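::Encoded backbone::
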Amino acid sequence: MMVTDRKGAYQTVHWQAHQSTNAEMPENTLAAMRYAWELGGIPELDIRQTADGVIIGMHDTTPKRTTNAPESDQDRLISECTFAEVQEWDAGIKFSELYRGEKVPALAQILSVLAQYPERELYLDYKEIDLEKMALLIKEYGVGRQIIFCHSNHENCKTVKRLVPEVRTMQWIPDKEVDDRFQETLETGFDSLDIVQIHLVDAKANEGWRYRLQREFLQEALKHLDEDGLELEVLPFHFDQDSMFELLDMGIRRFAVDEPKVFVETIHRYFNDKQNG
């Protein structure tokens, strides 16, 4: 997403359309992917594997929350269902009648669309799949440079970088674990990583800074990553204009958000304010 600062220079803000709590679209659907791309962002696809080995877009271990799967299927593990069974469910209707007919997509379906638009990118968030099978699909569609692979386990990121070196890798770290986990990753020299994502959860009491994780930690993390040629991404589970402006003022230019349209509007306000001095 390109915006201009007060000097008319272009600034790039990268953003991920987080799926599992997405407030604007039925998550992990082709409709959600297209929505994020058209807004100038990067959609995320949570990936699981069916009993017959098809990698699909699905966050949860079962279809109960996001599909209209019949009662007999609602608590079945995705890993125990065939792809044909998964395709019988509607993945849009529980979100809104507007999205009736949306199916749980296969990763191959999403990659085939991605391959038609080399300027677009896609996050793949590992849930439960065969990484070698995923790597083969990425190579088949020739989209390695358009993929950002995400997981909390640093070892999985290392594996993917070995399998498909052109794929960018991102380790995500929950805020309650960030002190130890970030230090561990730092001590490896951020081995095989391109991005580190840190989660931002609201503090119980807002005393001039919205989040539980202190701004000083974020500033230090940003410094370390920048020195090593990596990027810091933050996932603020909630934000308003003031908190987002503070993050931007710190120099953060990569975000994951649950409200893409609201985020884009906020980003434009920020740079408009900077232009108008």
